[in-house]
Amino acid sequence: MLLPLIHKWFLLLFIVKITCAVRTYTKDDLIKLRAGMKLEPGWPCNGPLLRLAEDVAKRLIVAFDTKTGMPYGTVNLHSGVPKGETTVTCTAGVGTFIVEFGTLSRLTGDPLYEEVAMNALYALFDHRSQLGLLGNHIDIDSGRWTAQDAGIGSGVDSYFEYLVKGSILLQRPELMEMFYEARKSIDKYLKRDDWYMWVSMTKGQITLPVFQSLDAFWPGVLSLIGETSNAMRTLHNYHQVWQQYGFTPEFYYIPQTKAGTNKESYPLRPELIESIMYLYRATGDPYLLQAGEDILRSIQHSSKTPCGYATIKDVRDHIKEDRMESFFLSETTKYLYLLFDTDNFIHNQGNYGTIIETANGQCVIDAGGYVFNTEAHPIDPAALQCCHGAAKSNLFNFKDLEKNKALFRGDTIHQRRSQTNTSSEKAAENVTVEAEQAVVEVIPIDLNNSIAKAQDTDSANQSASVEEDDSEEDSNTTTLVSVEEITLPDFFGNILSSKGKVFSPQEMLERFRRENKFPRNTTWENNYKLLSCKAQPFLQRISIFGEFFNK
């Protein structure tokens, strides 16, 4: 069985030369131990981590204070946009905010972040060429494209990814419309034999006939909109490159079928395994498990070192480079694990959930449908709905449906609710009582002196004033503090405190609303049928998907 190998691999990955004690936690324990702190009343719509996230967002939002509303590429958290900062930003840098900023707006109830991110997307979309293509870099003040190569890879990739994921997470059909419009031009000008080239955004002529390793995210995005046939054909092309070298080089020249000069490295990128995981969840094709195993074995054979996993400097001879990118842990290993761990909670399809109390009434979270941001951090869309939903009086009343359950075929409404409601009525009452008490008990963790406290170099430098004795006392236990104590340290707050001209995010937002430079299509905003996928054809549902490649 391959799954035990996967488990062993991850175990070795995270505990090399570390002795750890094992304690088994129930799901309730894990809920209570979220981030090692007490949960405030109203969580997840409230809490110290959410306040910190909003604090960071307020420091970043100044980047959007431009003529077009498209953001600068660099922000100093202390002083704002650096003096002399270039106005040229890559397309992905402009278009990769909506998932995080939309989430923040839905959780906090402040529309600022979502509206600012949407305005940037509208501005970017408005600056497409007459062919419907977007370039690679744009001047955020003038709107002039400074790099006019159009592609789906480096400098552009997560823009397309966030159009799809943002539409799903935030239920915004207009984002999906933008993606479909962009995809029409992509298929017309970039696509050649299920590869995607780089072309001139104004002329449509091929400028760079290469496959970039970053392109490999595309089949995964197509799977999210139900385009599994096209996605599988493209994925087969990418997997063939992997089989040729054991890895995918940063650039692969398609006509010459060879790695690009000075672009032969593989920095443990996640995009290919990401698409494989998504497509396997969509199709169940066993070919994808084999492709995932190929990736796993290549990394284990050629990338493993005594202290981690190294970048491959040259895919042709598998020489290692003395570095490991952070996305290897946050993305590559995660997608590999999720491919083979079919029972992971991330794959929950609504079979169970957790009932919580919010200002809008009882709400169910942890029911699945997680949306990953571009760094593979999962976001629960149900949590957003719990905080952003309608008032309790306006919620759908299932009791009214029970009176007319004869109108429905199959299971009765009561039976259907029983399958999705994982808590009994008594359990639900207990949740309500706990919420009213405004305290969620946190279980202290005793690690029995068996785990050495990790030392972070940056934090150690910042906290030089902290005595060594104090750190030694805390090295073997987890200290639980009150919610009020979980704030930015004073020294950190002083470092980040803003000085000089006062920037008003609200004034900037009002300016965007007033100017309305990029009118919105109200028809697009209400076309919710775009957020559903067609069922697969009958023959595809009863056959092994990987056997069919013909268009």
Automatic annotation (TrEMBL):
Q: Name one Pfam family in it.
A: Glyco_hydro_47
Q: Which UniProt keywords apply?
A: Calcium, Endoplasmic reticulum, Glycoprotein, Glycosidase, Hydrolase, Metal-binding, Signal
Q: What is its main location?
A: endoplasmic reticulum
One GO molecular function term?
A: mannosyl-oligosaccharide 1,2-alpha-mannosidase activity
Q: Which residues form the signal peptide?
A: 1-21
Comp. bias intervals (Acidic residues): 466-475
GO biological process: any one?
carbohydrate metabolic process
Catalytic activity, EC: 3.2.1.-
Query: Per UniProt, where does Ca(2+) bind?
Result: 374
Cofactor(s) for this protein? Ca(2+)
Q: Where in the cell is it found?
A: Endoplasmic reticulum
Where are the stretches annotated Disordered? Answer: 454-478
Which is one Gene Ontology cellular component term of this protein?
Answer: endoplasmic reticulum quality control compartment
Family note: Belongs to the glycosyl hydrolase 47 family.
Entry protein name: alpha-1,2-Mannosidase
